[in-house]
Design a protein that fits this description.
Elements (H helix, E strand, L loop, with lengths): L6 H20 L13 H14 L5 E5 L2 H9 L9 H10 L7 E5 L6 H13 L4
Parallel strand pairs: 1-2
Helix pairs in contact: 1-2
Amino acid sequence: MRGQYDEDAKKRIYDLMLLQSIHLIRQRKTVIVDGTFYRERMRNPYRQLAFAARIPLKWIELKASEAVIEKRMAKSRPFSEADFTVYRKVRDIFEPFLDHCLTLSSDTVVQLDDMLTKSTAYIYSSSA
């Protein structure tokens, strides 16, 4: 599907993710949402939801070197039309997290087990 990166399409996707999150939280489910969340306006509804539901909100930021990102984005991915140009556009307007977040490097596959261990510990910790 072409055109999935225009502002209207992105807003629809983030709105749907938020609605699904609300639905699951009302059922007392743990929710993990995967997205770029590169703007504060995309993060704020989740802050408000967590505050209203009196549940913790944990951000995890994955980073990689630009060389690794470019190599990964050059591969065919059936569910994404994003290329390195899209990455650079998002990178250039990315707003740093105002909240505490766990930052992990995903440069190598070797780090996967370590990333999972750190992510799990962070998610289930009582601190922010």
